Amino acid sequence: MSKSKEIIAKDKQYYATSGRIPYYPLVIDHAKGAQIIDADGKKYIDLLASASALNVGHAPDRVVAAIKEQTDKMIHYTPAYMYHQPVADLAEKLAEISPGNFTKKVAFGLSGSDANDAIIKFARAYTGRQNIVSFEQAYHGSTFGSLSMSAISLGMRQKIGPLLPGIYHIPYPDAYRGLYGETEPRSAEGYLQVFKSMTENYLPKEEIAAVVVETIQGDGGLLEPVPGYFRALADFCHANGILFAVDDVQQGLGRTGTWSSIEHFDVEADLIIYGKSLAGGLPLSAVVGRAEIMDGLQIPGHVFTTAANPVCCQAALATIQTIEEDNLLQASTDKGAYAKKAFTDLVNKYDFIGDVRGIGLSIGVDIVSDRQSKSKDSQAALKICNRAYEKGLLMIAVAGSVLRFQPPLVISYEELDQTFTILDEVFTELANGQLANYDVSGQGW
Ligand SMILES: Cc1ncc(COP(=O)(O)O)c(C=O)c1O
């Protein structure tokens, strides 16, 4: 039995099934940059960056050194009771790099999920309003608050209710498909109308605390919004005392070429949350917001014993330093344009590619059964991913049909070229019917 098979057999015996979305039998042994080596020595190019949690790549030198140094000095003392320098430095740095021309404060947690819960708490406490509006097909996390704001998976919500009250969902302003089976997108105002009519009929504006957005909707299919939507939504929010909050857990920290993805949309957010890549892969999340909002929550409204531990904070400071000193924001923009051009060239060859979208190195490729109806071809998307996996590329499909392309920002141009050579081969195999009997049942979400 191979080492990978042995490890998976043990995992199947002891690891709770709810903690994994099934894709490939890949047991990762070690990794560097954008390269992964499995337990049996096979190499892969990582196009997923651990769900965008490794923007600075695997085992980045500065982050590894910072972790080692801090671990020798002190692993933890809870900031709920005491102070330490790394958390003060990190709060200052996050306030500095986050957009928004106002005084900011920062709160910390351990995951993107708890940072979303924090939005609910800070927004409710500051506004004195109860309701939160998020988007259909959003994914905000797995705690009760963040899960209540999510609307992407029945399995995630079944049998555990009741979820949090006071959460409403509006349609994401998809720039590719339209609303509920429509093939053409609506205008910004056309999408916004759904929300406005809710507020005119059953959801009083003055009882809404915050709207929470993913700029590019990640797990929902790397969807891009129609132009002008977020500007119009933010105007509506601010005219009605509703906070505008951005979940940048997946799209932040360079993924789209900017510190916060909201910078692409000419909108100032009242609250921004980060997670995933923040500490180079260690568990850390942050809420950055207007000081008056952040101070609006009672003491001790948001404390976690192991949040913001100095090791994670030093890893985060080293992550941000790496992004700055290695120009990774620009790298994301440049490599994103390079990859988008390569995908767009493939559009001309393969008519099952319905759409190539995204900003920077956050790209989605929508696989369709025909371009007219834009019907999702989930089987084809999974077949592509599985065949690519066999050929040494690590990529998954989300929202059924969308190839998720979010490599570490440190991926090299050679690795990108290798990737597109392999993808072209896989696409040809699919087009020639060579993947017809490929079994991908039970995979994905
Ligand atoms: C946009 C977004 N928000 C929140 C989360 C949840 O983060 P975590 O898994 O760290 O709790 C995710 C995870 O995929 C995400 O993509």
From TrEMBL:
Please give the superkingdom of this protein's source: Bacteria
Q: Enumerate the InterPro entries for this protein.
A: Aminotrans_3, Aminotrans_3_PPA_site, Class-III_PLP-dep_AT, PyrdxlP-dep_Trfase, PyrdxlP-dep_Trfase_major, PyrdxlP-dep_Trfase_small
Keyword line: Aminotransferase, Pyridoxal phosphate, Transferase
Q: Which cofactor does it need?
A: pyridoxal 5'-phosphate
MF-aspect GO terms: identical protein binding; pyridoxal phosphate binding; transaminase activity
Q: Hey, which family's this protein in?
A: Belongs to the class-III pyridoxal-phosphate-dependent aminotransferase family.
Name under which the protein is recorded = Aspartate aminotransferase family protein
What organism does this protein naturally occur in? Aerococcus kribbianus
Top-level taxonomy? Bacteria, Bacillati, Bacillota, Bacilli, Lactobacillales
